[in-house]
Give the backbone structure.
Amino acid sequence: MKSLRELANSHPYYMSVTNYLADGSMNYGQTHYDNVADFLDEWGESDNDYNSVFRWDIHMNRDDEDEFTGTFSMQIAVILQRKGHLMIQFIDDLDEESLPAIMAWLQERYDYVKRTWKPLL
């Protein structure tokens, strides 16, 4: 398995963490979790049909001088397909020990996306 440093990614385009077209009362869905265990307690058994993960980012955390702090965090983008709501989930402390658990969870979501796109593949 790749290390956190190897998985820290830079997509060709940034991902907004807000719902641009929603007013303040509808712009919900940003949740911060202290760690992977807390995240999986809530999202571990989430239904892919209702909660489709379409993007994830691992970040090397940086201080005010843009120096790497030695810690990592994660951002997971979920669309609630029936409601059309964008939800961004943040894992504030991502470590090497918890990496297998979150990668297994993401693999299940990747497999779902592949089934969705199967006619094209």
Residues 77 and 88 are 5 Å apart (CA to CA). Residues 4-120 form one domain. The chain has a mean pLDDT of 91.
